[in-house]
Structures are given as structure tokens and as C-alpha cells.
Amino acid sequence: MKTKLCDLFGIEEPIFQGGMAWVSDANLASAVSEAGGLGIIAAGNGPADFVRGEIQKARVKTKKPFGVNIMLLSPYVDEVIKVVCEEKVKIVVTGAGNPGKYMEQFKAAGISVVPVVPSVAIAKHMEKLGADAVIAEGLEAGGHIGKLTTMALVPQVVDAVSIPVIAAGGIGDGRGIAASFMLGASGVQMGTRFLLAHECTVHENYKKMVEEAGDIDTVETGRCTGHPVRVLRNKLTRKIQQVEELSKAEAVEQIEKLGTGALRLAVKDGDVDNGSVMCGQIAGMLSKRQSAKEIIAECIAETQKLLGRGV
After folding, report:
1. Residues facing 190 on adjacent strands
2. Rounded Cα distance, 228 and 99, in Å
3. In what order do the strands lie in the sheet with 229-232?
4. Which terminus of the chain is more solvent-facing, meaning fewer CB atoms within 10 Å of its CB: N or C?
């Protein structure tokens, strides 16, 4: 199912796998790339040696293109960017910050840059900086989110920029992909759907919580910090909601303390009561585990059927 996104990044299907910290490792990314999409390794707050190791592991598992998601607020961001340039990674997805000061470095290394954007203004700015495409992510997504829904954000970004737009947030099957194409997107990014991939190494407790989630079981937390996060409801979210009733200064300080290490606690240790179970609003749609190849094949088949065409 070719779009200009496929030609631009050398992939077979216009599906990006979300760069989820502590989740999107070499194992998942390589499986998605092997299945024809674009697998993405999440650097998160990991140090340079960790990121280099994951890149090298992925290269053993696949010869197809994959990318690295770089969180620009990471304390190791400069070292991580040096690593992706040295390792000649072809595609970098950026989030949590402005990649402007690194653009020259990326371009000199032959790296395509795809920032995640929450608004039209930021999308236009990224295009001016030289971004090759943008990911327009709505608040339906898991993890860090903006203020606009995918349905409202994507067509406005499409109208505002000339580079390809990838829709993200609330997309987990062929219906979401077909809708994204109708909104003008050239492809989609899916994160939550891949939490249930066989190749995803998150703790079993995390997977079960996603499987059992209903349509209203996610909640937005930490809006007062300026970096809101969508997660599944649990003891941690109830604590955060109580803290959010305090003054802004107190709330921000306590939420940051509660959030420190919480994602790893859920993903690696399986503490889904006190950890941060990041997950998008499509969780209520998910009930089966599949391989990355099966997920992508099913999504593409559904999309083709809905759009009335086959490849």
C-alpha cells in the first residue's frame, strides 16, 4: 500500500511504530521493520551506550530501515544525537523539544528528521527548519500529549505544510488508517496496538492491563506541569489527581516526584498499580495478541477493503 511516505523512507507500508520509552526496543523495532513498516527504537532518557547497543542489535535482526526516537529533554540528548549520526541511522523522530539546533548535524549525517507536532504553528516551524515530514499527534495517544484531537489536528496540519504528514493518536486498525488518509495524511503512527505484539517485551502485567481496559479507562494526568501524559487509571493516577488539587507550584513538584521512575516500574517490574501504564484511548479496541507482521498485514488488508482497492 504505497504512499509518498514509503518512497521517502524506503518502507513497504505507510505505518510507523511509535517510539515508546522503555517499550520500543530493538526487538520490537526490528520486527516492525521486517513486517514492512518503520520500526522505531525509543532513546527515552537512556544514555548513549544504551542507544548504540539497541541500534546495533536491530541491525543484526533486520537489514530494512528503522528509526530512533529522540526525546530532546533527555539529559543525554547531545551524546545520543552523536551516536545516531555515527551509526548512520537513516530516520530520527524527535519529541519533547525543538530539534532546530541539531538540524545541521542531522542533515550532514544524511538523516531524515520527523518531529512529533501538537499544533499547526509548530508543524510550520518544523517545515521551515528542514523537517522531512511531521507526525501530527492527537491527545488520544498514550504517553505525552497535546491539546487537540487527531481528527481536528491532522487536516489542519496537512493544509498548512507541504511535507508529508503522519497521523498519530487513536489509530489502531484499518478504520483509523483509512480515516487518516481521508484527512490527508500520508501514513500513520501506531503505538498502543504494538503493546500487544508478541515481540513487545513489556511485562505481562502491563499487557494484561491493556487487554482488559475499556473505552474510558485512560486518563490525562499532569496538565499543570505543561507535559500531560495519558495513562491507564490506577493507584498512581489517583494520587496524581489528588495532588493536582494543590497549588500549581506544589502540584508540579509532587507530580514530578511521583512520575520519576514510574514508567520503568510498570514496563519492566510489572507494578501496574504504582507504575505509569502509558496507553492510548484505543485500548478498549484491543483484545488479541499478534506478531508485528500479523498486526501490519491485518491493518493494511482492512484499509484496502475500506478504501475499495487492493495492491
Report:
1. 17
2. 20
3. 143-144, 229-232, 218-221
4. C
What 3-state class would DSSP assign to 303? helix
The grid cell for 35 is: 513486517
> Which residue has cell 484499509?
303
| Residue 291 contacts residue 30 (beta carbons within 8 Å) | no
- From first to last of its 311 residues, what are the pLDDT tens digits of the chain? 789 899 999 999 999 999 999 999 999 999 999 999 999 999 989 999 999 999 999 999 999 999 999 999 889 999 999 999 999 999 999 988 899 999 999 999 999 999 999 999 999 999 999 999 999 999 999 999 999 999 999 999 999 999 999 999 999 999 999 999 999 999 999 999 999 999 999 999 999 999 999 999 999 998 888 888 999 999 999 999 888 888 778 888 888 888 888 999 999 999 999 999 999 999 999 999 999 999 999 999 999 999 986 44
* Cα–Cα distance measured from residue 192 to residue 261, given in angstroms and rounded to the nearest whole number: 20
Yes or no: say if 230 and 210 are a contact pair by the CB < 8 Å rule.
Answer: no
